[in-house]
Amino acid sequence: MDHPAEHLPSTSDLETLLRTPGFGSSRVVHDIGAVASRLHTLGGVVGVTVAGPVVMNAVGAHATPAWIGGPLRIGRDEIVVRLNPSRLSSVLLTDPAANVPPTLRLFDSDGNTSHAIYLTDDSDRSAFDSLVAGRPGFDGIASGPASSATDGFDSDTGDRVRAAFAIHAGDPGPGRIVPEHTGPDDQVGMFDSILADGGLDRRRALTGGQIRSAVRVDTRRVVAALEHAALLGMSVTVATSARGCMQMRQGRLDGARGHRGQVVLASGRSRVMVNVNHVSECWVTSSQGAWGPTAAVELYDRDDRCCLVLTSTGPVARTVYDAWEQLTGDLAG
């Protein structure tokens, strides 16, 4: 097996794992698309995304991943990830010592973990074993390039996003289709501009005044606004962005608590932990959503990468949209 460890920086997560006793026989797969298409077969798992000062975890089953340039899918009960295959390098499937659960890790192009999946008692172990074994005929494992799973969408990160905007949040009911938006200022464009390069270009545009109606706000005011939103039980879309992978959830914000530079957000079976001491900038921006211009709160780390986005997406009730706009309007005011 050709491990890519020798081509990666000595500090990469992948190389460290491959050198760890019990991990050396793990399976490395380079067909990101084939593995991603089977995540839903694993059943109940814990999905974790680490993006600098932000850690997001969720318990549940994975939905079929969305891809950069494609429709936007954000669920309430499923674990939803949006992937950029040009920023991902490989998948490591491990079943090491008894004290570590079977794990699937997606690595970025530097060999560092973008998304990790830990099996639980509710997982389908046979589906995981099939991935590890690389059994012939298992829906295309090692059958071709990862780009084959993008269904024709252009993964060139410099291209303007042109895809339709469609939200799948649990069971939204018949006919609840989000209007199509194809301009660079829609919510798909916002998310994909971050997923493309970590938001580096977007942050430069923000500081250069090239993004209309963007307002920089103090981190402490953002924390206070989120605590208020939780008291009101507001519905919020949360997106944690690591390199090549964005984990997303839409649902009621059940709790938000800030203490000594740490903030914890709770929504259903998902938690988001933010070390605000390592958040360098917070911006309130606006992009076109289902109800029109919709505010987003974007957090950037010390490396100028966007690590967390909070906004409102999809066919929510008008009162939910209005409440979010009032909250963010007060924050930016």
From TrEMBL:
Record-annotated Haemin-degrading HemS/ChuX domain positions: 201-328
SUPFAM superfamilies: Heme iron utilization protein-like
InterPro entries per record: Heme_Transport_Util_sf, HemS/ChuX_dom
Taxonomy, superkingdom: Bacteria
One matching Pfam family: HemS
Full protein name: Haemin-degrading HemS/ChuX domain-containing protein
